[in-house]
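Supplementary Text 2. Reproducibility record for the structural model of the 547-residue chain.

All settings were left at their defaults, and a single model was retained for analysis rather than an ensemble. We include the record here because the model underlies the residue-level annotations in Supplementary Table 4.
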Amino acid sequence: MKPGKFYFIVFALVFILAACSESRKTEEPASDGDILTDQDADGITPDEDQTENPDETPDETAKNPDFEDLECGTSFGDYACDFTLPLDSGDWNFAENYSKDENYLFVFYRGKNSTSKNIWSTKLYNLFDKAPENIHFFFLVDNDQAEIAEEKIKIVKESAADAFDMVGNSDILKKIHFVTKPASETDPWIADWLTNNKSEFFFGIDRFRRIRQGGSFSSWNSSTLPPEFDNLYKEAELYDHEKKIADFIEGNSENSKVFKGLENVPFEEEGWTKNLDFSINFEGLSENGELYISLEQLCDTPKSCEWDRLERLFLCDESGGNCETEIGRWITTYGRSGKWLTDITPLKPLFEKNGKYNFRFTVDGDYYVNSLDFVFVGKDIPAGTLEPLFNRREQFDETYNSQFEPMKIEISGDVKKAKISAYITGHGNGSEQANCAEFCQFESVFTVNGTDFAIDFDNAGTSDGCFEKVKDGVVPNQYGSWPYGRAGWCPGEDVKLIEIDITDALVSGENTFSYAAYLDGKVYEPVVTDENGYRAEIYLSSYLVIY
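Retained model, structure tokens:
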């Protein structure tokens, strides 16, 4: 691109954004030379707004306490170095402005990257309107591409104008930055990142100051799967969730204990079902408190871990040969890494004594590298006693309910509280008319002494049920149909224990428990469309916990 045309484009983009901001003010309209993109609603630049007395000279030796001296680089996973970017409001320095409470997202127009070019044809409005408030957006243009087509520039300007006009939030406007020079001419660190990451058009800097790679920004609302700006802010929601996990562990460090299990251990690459057997010595586990499983999985390339697979963690007997008690469940991501902290406190009665426990971690098909620990947090929460209830994997059809015989359990009269804790997930799709059990809203019903307790999976089959759960731990922007809601789960998420308070339904002495599943309140009779497809099935593990 010729330098003159590049600067004309940048100026045109900044000018139309400024005009949209100015249109909301009651003052005299700005002249052609006024640039307002990085100003707040009062026309004051952020630097001016933060200085009580503009005549005072800032202390140039003052150091930002959030910006630590760390070994940095340009690779994903490295700490970000210091850099300076030219904006229309002046130079923006990372070390001076960095905050551990904020996330930083960088979006490049790279003419040699088809995804980069395609995403600029989508709307910016949702990116600004729905994003968390603790984000800074930086938009940059690389200068290694062929001349940007005029129709693309028109789309970008119109989209940006609509976005600024509709958002109307001065706080977010101050955090949206357009860089006024070609990216490779702005700062050596940015130029090095461009050189080392020629196939990328996005990176983030998370709450730990780590450089983060984005996932797939494809929209799953159409068959063509174009990328959309809407998905970018989900990366920051992921960063915030990971920070929440770290803050929880750090905040409870004085009364917690970590029991190490697996550390960067890959699944074996042979065979379909893969098991990792390991032992942990639980020394120092007290009776009262909360118990969590910390799992981090690394995916080297999307192809090595490309499907949403069911993962389960089992507690084994003392010999390690019998592993039938499920204590944790996850669904792998479509081709991305993930980190989860899963509360299994209701199952703590399984660990009633200090000593060695044996475990089996299993998955079908994928090759993640795993780090798995237990985290105990001492609190005034007494452990109960635990009885296994219904624990089966069965095909969901007209014969399903007949496979669960009622159970009778003796319970004393001094029970203060009782709960059913259960993992319930529906799987199988594309082979039955109702698209069960992954995408159909079936009901699971526990019956205690004639009283029904129903669990409805109304998230199943929704277009954005998992998209809206990134704040709860779903990994965003996976390389597969991750946004759609499922029955009891999402790709790239830990499955949460379902807890049902059944205290009022219990009696002193013998109690009868039963379980069944229905679709629309009726026994499910599938209309099979593909005999060789993945037929509906339900994975159920349930326990009675008595306090």
